[in-house]
Amino acid sequence: MTKGSLSYNPRMTTQLEERFGFLISDVGRLTGKRFDDLAKSSVDLTRAQCRVLANLAHYGDINQARLADLLEVAPISAGRLLDRMEEGGWIERTANPQDRRERQVRMTPKAERTLSKARKVGDEIALEALNGFTDEEAKQLIALLQRVRGNLSRLVDR
């Protein structure tokens, strides 16, 4: 919000239900738990593995270190996760021709088919979460969240 206008002041309340960070975090937690519940019967991957595929679908082939950063896990943890996914035929890792120390990660066709199932689960959760919202309200919420992400991304991803 801008100076001189009505603005959100996080110091005005100590109520968790009115705290921006708490609400964002808790919505993420609840969405993840709901994903786990719904995905058990239709998606053959864990939520963490689905996040790997979603990032690969969004960013394309990327190196393991960047993927670990996007997942917010240590590179060693990402390596173990990717080891299991590679063994299962979900991803392929290749050496980067420009830097042999770096490994590029890409999805396999098997993973692309499963990611489609995971997206359907995500769509179902979005419908549940936005129950009672008009189409306009849902679009507005998404637009507002995109602005929040943009604001924070400019600060964090400099």
Automatic annotation (TrEMBL):
It comes from Paraburkholderia domus. One of its GO terms (molecular function) is DNA binding. It comes from the Bacteria. This is Transcriptional regulator SlyA. The gene is slyA_6. Residues 17-150 form the HTH marR-type domain. One of its GO terms (biological process) is response to stress. Keywords: DNA-binding, Transcription, Transcription regulation. Pfam families: MarR.
